[in-house]
Design a protein that fits this description.
This protein has two domains: about 260 residues, Aminopeptidase, CATH 3.40.630; about 110 residues, Alpha-Beta Plaits, CATH 3.30.70. It contains twelve helices and 16 strands. The strands form four sheets. It has an eight-stranded mixed beta sheet with strand order 1-2-4-3-5-16-6-15, with helices on both faces. A four-stranded antiparallel beta sheet has the order 10-12-8-13, with helices on one face.
Length: about 375
């Protein structure tokens, strides 16, 4: 696999970076030590500018090439998850209840490796903006960075990112033009009736019966309201009601995750959920409160950028290891906000056999970091040739 020779020589150093980050996970926007570690490495590497405190703990670092040219943004997320690690490795999380179970430690390492190479070689025109982003898992750090003006402030004209993919062969790349990952919204519905004794339901207003009707009806939205080729998912994932078998409760609730790719489908799903809940509430004589969280939008690759990224990935891993028309998936990603702000593309990169993402036994494969770094570096050199 043609990892760039100079980046291959960084492999042990990159492994050390990654394992340090893995042992010291931080959550959401609270990535202060992570950001300090990254900033220190960037200054050692010799980038031209390091801007800290963006979106609380985010960083934008600038590397200047040989002469004037556009600015390309390269993004890595850096937050961990609130989980207990069970890997048993000697560099396992030292922070109880927190671990890098999604590989953001690897994403940071790949971008640092690319930064080291690009700062040494400068074999490009224009500039590279390295975007180290907090709060991908919780908090929409990508949106916050965009809203704080990083695209305009640093004149970023296109933007790219990678997510690792466990159980995809090491170094294989997957992407597609157009939608790659779904939008994600959350509905939490709370029903209030009149509680009482289970032996006298005629004296009560039973929210449990209303809840059952609503959940069943919500599951009809996609097969009966959404065109069959417009992929969408509604999963009711929480149902809570009651405390004893002989008590009709005062309240009941359910929650659902709602995912799709098209804005018009997204609007339709929300509309139908409200109609079903409000209609059933009236029919069952209960009060209904709907908390609808409009979450991350769909991650939509720009066609020309996805094609370009596929070409670069092919140069790194070979045509047989790159799928530029991969099946899109229902997971979500706040890199979507950056792709709404600027043209660009997002890719998955295989890291070989592993536990799944967000699993307590997951551990990023250090052999993958030089491959991802090589992709980022070669992308810059191909996009901004001297």
């Amino acid at each position: 696999m043609p990892v760039l020779n100079r980046i291959a020589s960084y492999a042990e150093e990159m492994k050390g970076w990654r394992q340090h980050l893995h042992a010291n996970p931080e959550l959401s926007f609270d990535c202060h030590n992570t950001a300090a570690f990254i900033a220190e490495r960037l200054r050692e590497i010799g980038v031209d500018e390091v801007h800290t405190g963006i979106a609380t703990t985010g960083i934008v670092a600038i590397i200047n090439g040989q002469g004037e040219g556009p600015t390309i943004g390269l993004r890595a997320d850096m937050d961990a998850l609130p989980m207990e690690e069970i890997t048993g490795v000697d560099y396992a999380s030292t922070v109880p209840g927190k671990m890098h179970a999604c590989g953001h430690d690897g994403h940071v390492t790949m971008l640092l490796g690319a930064a080291k190479y690009l700062a040494e070689t400068r074999n490009f025109k224009g500039r590279v903006a390295l975007l180290f982003q907090p709060a991908e898992e919780d908090g929409a750090g990508g949106m916050v960075m965009v809203n704080e003006g990083v695209m305009d402030r640093f004149a970023i004209q296109s933007v790219y990112g990678i997510h690792n993919a466990p159980n995809v062969p090491l170094g294989h790349f997957l992407t597609t033009p157009g939608p790659l990952m779904a939008s994600v919204d959350t509905a939490v519905v709370t029903l209030t009736g009149k509680g009482g004794h289970g032996a006298t339901p005629h004296e009560c207003v039973d929210p449990v019966v209303a809840l059952i009707g609503m959940v069943a009806a919500v599951q009809t939205i996609i097969p009966r309201n959404v065109y069959a080729l417009d992929e969408a998912v509604i999963s009711v994932t929480m149902v809570h009601a009651g405390t004893a078998s002989n008590v009709i409760p005062e309240e009941a609730m359910f929650a659902a995750t709602i995912r799709c790719f098209k804005p018009e489908v997204r609007e339709l799903l929300k509309k139908r959920i409200y109609e079903i809940v409000e209609g059933h509430a009236l029919a069952y004589n209960v009060k209904a409160k709907i908390d609808y969280d409009w979450g991350y939008p769909a991650t939509i690759n720009h066609a020309a950028n996805a094609e370009f990224a596929t070409t670069v990935a092919t140069e790194i891993s070979g045509a047989e290891a790159v799928n530029g028309n991969a099946v899109r998936e229902m997971g979500s990603e706040d890199f979507s906000y950056m792709l709404e702000a600027r043209p660009g593309a997002y890719l998955f990169m295989g890291i070989g056999p592993n536990a799944g993402l967000h699993h307590p036994a997951y551990n990023f494969n250090d052999e993958a970091a030089p491959i991802g770094a090589s992709f980022f570096a070669r992308l810059v050199e191909r996009a901004l040739p001297v």
